[in-house]
Protein backbone atom coordinates (compact mmCIF):
# COMPACT_ATOMS: atom_id res chain seq x y z
CA UNK A 1 0.00 0.00 0.00
CA UNK A 2 1.12 3.53 -0.66
CA UNK A 3 1.21 6.22 2.01
CA UNK A 4 0.80 9.15 -0.39
CA UNK A 5 -1.93 11.45 0.94
CA UNK A 6 -4.46 12.90 -1.48
CA UNK A 7 -7.76 14.76 -1.28
CA UNK A 8 -9.43 11.34 -1.57
CA UNK A 9 -8.29 10.68 2.02
CA UNK A 10 -10.49 13.45 3.42
CA UNK A 11 -13.15 11.96 5.67
CA UNK A 12 -11.15 8.85 6.55
CA UNK A 13 -10.83 7.70 10.15
CA UNK A 14 -7.32 7.81 11.62
CA UNK A 15 -6.34 5.05 14.05
CA UNK A 16 -3.25 3.92 15.95
CA UNK A 17 -1.68 0.58 14.97
CA UNK A 18 -3.48 -1.01 17.95
CA UNK A 19 -6.87 0.18 16.68
CA UNK A 20 -7.28 3.16 19.02
CA UNK A 21 -9.31 5.90 17.30
CA UNK A 22 -7.37 9.13 16.79
CA UNK A 23 -9.73 11.27 14.73
CA UNK A 24 -10.88 12.13 11.23
CA UNK A 25 -9.07 13.69 8.26
CA UNK A 26 -10.77 17.03 7.61
CA UNK A 27 -8.46 18.29 4.86
CA UNK A 28 -5.41 17.28 2.82
CA UNK A 29 -3.10 20.04 1.60
CA UNK A 30 0.30 19.61 -0.05
CA UNK A 31 0.72 16.03 1.14
CA UNK A 32 -0.27 16.78 4.73
CA UNK A 33 -3.51 15.54 6.30
CA UNK A 34 -5.17 17.75 8.88
CA UNK A 35 -6.79 15.53 11.49
CA UNK A 36 -9.58 16.66 13.81
CA UNK A 37 -8.64 14.74 16.94
CA UNK A 38 -10.99 12.72 19.08
CA UNK A 39 -11.14 14.61 22.42
CA UNK A 40 -9.95 11.53 24.32
CA UNK A 41 -6.56 11.51 22.54
CA UNK A 42 -5.75 15.23 22.26
CA UNK A 43 -3.16 15.18 25.06
CA UNK A 44 -1.33 12.20 23.53
CA UNK A 45 -1.30 13.77 20.07
CA UNK A 46 0.18 16.99 21.40
CA UNK A 47 3.38 15.07 22.12
CA UNK A 48 3.41 13.01 18.91
CA UNK A 49 2.20 15.18 16.02
CA UNK A 50 2.54 18.77 14.84
CA UNK A 51 -0.37 21.07 15.44
CA UNK A 52 -1.99 22.50 12.37
CA UNK A 53 -5.33 23.57 11.07
CA UNK A 54 -8.11 25.77 12.24
CA UNK A 55 -8.29 24.91 15.95
CA UNK A 56 -6.36 23.45 18.87
CA UNK A 57 -7.71 19.94 18.25
CA UNK A 58 -6.41 19.69 14.68
CA UNK A 59 -3.09 18.00 14.00
CA UNK A 60 -0.87 17.70 10.95
CA UNK A 61 -0.22 14.18 9.74
CA UNK A 62 2.56 13.67 7.20
CA UNK A 63 3.23 10.64 5.05
CA UNK A 64 6.03 9.61 7.41
CA UNK A 65 3.52 9.20 10.25
CA UNK A 66 1.50 6.61 8.31
CA UNK A 67 1.88 2.84 8.31
CA UNK A 68 -0.78 2.28 5.65
CA UNK A 69 -3.85 3.78 4.01
CA UNK A 70 -6.91 1.58 3.66
CA UNK A 71 -10.25 2.18 1.92
CA UNK A 72 -11.77 4.12 4.83
CA UNK A 73 -8.97 4.24 7.43
CA UNK A 74 -5.46 5.62 7.86
CA UNK A 75 -3.30 3.58 10.23
CA UNK A 76 -0.48 5.38 12.04
CA UNK A 77 3.02 3.98 12.48
CA UNK A 78 3.88 2.58 15.89
CA UNK A 79 5.94 5.08 17.86
CA UNK A 80 8.77 4.05 20.14
Brief sketch in words of this structure:
With 80 residues, the chain is mostly beta strands. 9% of the residues lie in helices and 40% in strands. A 7-stranded mixed beta sheet has the order 4-5-3-2-1-7-6, with helices on one face.
Write the layout of secondary structure elements.
Elements: E1 13-15, E2 21-29, E3 32-37, H1 42-48, E4 50-51, E5 58-61, E6 66-69, E7 73-76
Parallel strand pairs: 1-7
Antiparallel strand pairs: 1-2, 2-3, 3-5, 4-5, 6-7
If you had to describe this structure to a student in words, what would you say it looks like?
The chain is mostly beta strands. The protein has a single domain, classed as Roll (SH3 type barrels). Helices cover 9% and strands 40% of the residues. It contains one helix and seven strands. It has a seven-stranded mixed sheet, with helices on one face. It is globular, with a radius of gyration of 11 Å. The protein starts with 12 loop residues before the first strand and ends with a strand.
Please state the overall shape, judged from the principal axes of the Cα atoms.
globular
Poorly predicted ranges = none
* C-alpha end-to-end distance: 22 Å
Oligomer: single chain
SS field, number of helical segments: 1
Give the fraction of residues assigned to helices. Answer: under 10%
The third-level CATH topology is SH3 type barrels
Structural class: mainly beta
- Provide mean pLDDT, rounded: 81
Topology as a string of helices (H) and strands (E): EEEHEEEE
| Share in β-strands | 35-45%
Largest sheet: 7 strands, mixed
The CATH architecture designation is Roll
Organism: Haladaptatus paucihalophilus DX253
Protein name: PRC-barrel domain-containing protein
Amino acid sequence: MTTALTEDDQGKRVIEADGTAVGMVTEVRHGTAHVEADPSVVETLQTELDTGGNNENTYALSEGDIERIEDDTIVLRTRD
